[in-house]
Inverse folding.
């Protein structure tokens, strides 16, 4: 029997990738690792424990734990980032450009980080700055991640 299935989803592209990866006949761990590269800072921003769980999950190269993988990601996305976890993720992202950044940019990163720590500013302000830095220094890996989308 030849069956067509149509799905209607809210987050079109993200769900389409999930569906493809979850329904392939023989899934490959490298596909989950590639997907992880897009989500990892979103997860880290919300939960260090879930971040570590996913890293552990992907260590077994002979397995294809697609359902567990997406359940963990969705559990993380459902969490509201704390200032500490958001700053931790932002510091990791900053690591992609900190050696190239000017002294003025380093000072601005420090200032924004301290403002978030003292709750004088929201993480979104720091993320806007980080996105500008990723664009300026051509950090395509980070620009392709979902970190700046959430």
């Amino acid at each position: 029997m030849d069956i067509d299935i149509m799905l209607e989803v809210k987050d079109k592209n993200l769900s389409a990738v999930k569906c493809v990866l979850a329904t392939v006949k023989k899934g490959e761990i490298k596909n989950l690792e590639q997907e992880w590269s897009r989500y990892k800072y979103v997860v880290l921003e919300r939960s260090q424990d879930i971040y570590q769980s996913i890293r552990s999950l992907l260590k077994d190269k002979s397995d294809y734990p697609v359902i567990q993988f997406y359940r963990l990601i969705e559990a993380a996305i459902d969490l509201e980032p704390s200032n500490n976890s958001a700053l931790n993720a932002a510091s990791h992202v900053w690591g992609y450009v900190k050696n190239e950044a000017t002294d003025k940019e380093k000072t601005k990163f420090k200032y924004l980080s301290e403002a978030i720590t003292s709750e004088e500013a929201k993480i979104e302000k720091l993320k806007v700055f980080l996105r500008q830095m990723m664009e300026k220094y051509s950090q395509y890996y980070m620009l392709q991640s979902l970190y700046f989308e959430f």
